[in-house]
Write a structure and sequence with these properties.
The chain is mainly alpha-helical. It contains 22 helices and no strands.
């Protein structure tokens, strides 16, 4: 991910004059102090300073991360992000691309872009295990992975999930009426695969290269996939998400007209590989996930992209932990940390410390796990930073507690695990309700921890709450956890509420 959050270089900088007017006669430093005070009032921590305020007003930060969003909306009640001069989150959810110096400015829009990072010499990655036809688009025929986003002037556009056109909304409504959440998610992504005909292939043969339109389409695919995964989980998305990935690498093979476009394509293709890898990972297709993460890592190494390398190793560590390779999880997390030290994001380093803690827990090394957890909390407490990668928008207090719960669970400390899982579920439901899949996961984790801690009645209550999310969330990880909980609770089926949970779980449709 790019190191400047909530930004896309497909749009030129435009000062946030609305935010500047709201600052009034206060200096940037005085206003930053007011932001920090407001954060404390709602129990949030932000490391706001005059430089951050200057970046917002200059248009370098198109949309704040979730911590800053909560603070700003607390300071200016009744206003939306767009009322404060920011771009809708739906336009910036994903990796911000990074133009190199000397690249001609892209067309302006309602948002603004981050500061450019230095150009690095890049070459095209060599990938394995993926058939990629040489497809690109004619330079005068822009491609679209899906429909346009809502206008930045519409306050409802601040909802990161309200990004469908009326036609697409009809498709989703019809899918919802069939009762299939997977169908809803698939309908939303249905236009994400590029279907390019003979004219595009002919343009490659004539030597035409990818341009800004193609790079933007790849970046938009990353945003859409992540948004849908946040809401619906991975199972209904995985197969469809592979199509834009194949297209992204085909565009890389075709080459780019400018170095800045090549940079964006490398970054976008790598992030797209990680996104598809995560969908495979969360839906239990571990071999596929490993292949996609490896492809993203290869792209990062070829492009000398530290942000992408840290992200790829971060996910690799998580996968290794989930597939019973805890020592590899530790090594991958440590490799991610080495790459991330160049990026200036304490929150990223905190997440990577948690990945390492998960590996130590899997090895049964309690001291190593506790040391990593202590480091994770200390880094987290340093607050959000403008350099936090946008893909980390899910990482807040809820995820911190959720990952710590998994560590204690792996060490067999069920009561302590349940404490953190409960905190994660409660915090997520109140602060990030849009991350439905994560709330379901934390609740399922809580049910399992309570069951193993010998509290079957509480476990059944949490299990029933987790089951209620399955109408909207399709995640093999959540379903697998609930199945394990059901097996643990089976000997306690006469306890209060347990029978009801077991009956509800038994009535779930089974995967074919």
């Amino acid at each position: 991910m790019a190191t400047s959050p909530m930004a896309s270089s497909t749009q030129s900088r435009r000062p946030n004059l609305v935010f500047r007017r709201l600052r009034g006669q206060r200096s940037p430093g005085e206003f930053a102090a007011a932001v920090r005070r407001a954060a404390r009032e709602i129990g949030e921590r932000v490391s706001c300073d005059a430089r951050y305020i200057g970046r917002v007003e200059a248009g370098e930060i198109r949309c704040p991360n979730y911590a800053y969003e909560r603070v700003f909306l607390h300071m200016f009640p009744g206003r939306s992000l767009t009322d404060l001069g920011f771009a809708p989150r739906s336009l910036v959810r994903g990796r911000g691309a990074r133009p190199g110096p000397g690249a001609p400015p892209p067309p302006p829009s309602a948002g603004s872009s981050p500061e450019p990072t230095p150009t690095r010499t890049r070459s095209h990655p060599s990938t394995t295990g993926t058939t990629r036809p040489n497809l690109t688009n004619h330079p005068h025929t822009p491609i679209h992975l899906y429909e346009s986003h809502p206008s930045g002037s519409d306050p409802s556009a601040c909802d990161p999930y309200a990004i469908q056109t009326p036609e697409e909304s009809d498709v989703r409504r019809r899918a919802f009426m069939t009762g299939s959440t997977a169908a809803v998610a698939a309908a939303s992504l249905g236009s994400a695969g590029l279907v390019l005909g003979g004219s595009a292939e002919a343009s490659v043969r004539r030597g035409h290269r990818a341009g800004d339109a193609e790079a933007s389409a790849v970046e938009d695919a990353v945003r859409r996939i992540r948004l849908l995964d946040d809401r619906h989980g991975a199972d209904g998305l995985y197969r469809r998400a592979a199509a834009p990935l194949r297209t992204a690498y085909a565009l890389l093979d075709a080459g780019a007209a400018r170095q800045s476009t090549a940079d964006r394509l490398h970054a976008g293709a790598g992030e797209l590989a990680i996104s598809v890898g995560w969908l495979a990972h969360d839906s239990g297709r571990f071999d596929d996930a490993r292949s996609y993460y490896s492809e993203a890592l290869a792209t990062a190494r070829v492009a000398d992209d530290a942000a992408l390398e840290a992200h790829a190793f971060c996910n690799t560590a998580f996968l290794a932990r989930d597939t019973g390779r805890p020592r590899e999880a530790v090594r991958a997390a440590q490799a991610a940390t080495r790459a991330a030290r160049r990026l200036g994001s304490p929150r990223l380093l905190s997440l990577l410390a948690l990945r390492e803690a998960g590996g130590w827990a899997g090895l049964g090394d309690r001291a190593g796990c506790e040391h990593s957890l202590t480091r994770a909390h200390a880094l987290f407490d340093r607050g959000a930073s403008p350099e936090d990668p946008e893909w980390m928008s899910f990482y807040g207090e809820a995820e911190l507690n959720g990952l710590e719960a998994q560590c204690w669970s792996a060490l067999g400390d069920w009561s302590r695990a349940a404490t953190h899982a409960r905190r994660a579920a409660v915090t997520a439901a109140s602060e990030t309700p849009q991350f439905t899949r994560n709330i379901a996961l934390y609740t399922a984790e809580l049910a399992d921890d309570l069951a193993r801690a010998g509290r079957p009645d509480e476990a059944a209550t949490a299990g029933l709450r987790a089951l209620s999310f399955l109408d909207e969330v399709q995640s093999s990880r959540v379903q697998s956890m609930l199945a394990t909980t059901a097996r643990v609770l089976l000997p306690h089926r006469r306890a209060s509420g347990v029978g009801g949970f077991l009956e509800r779980h038994a009535a779930l449709p089974r995967a074919v």
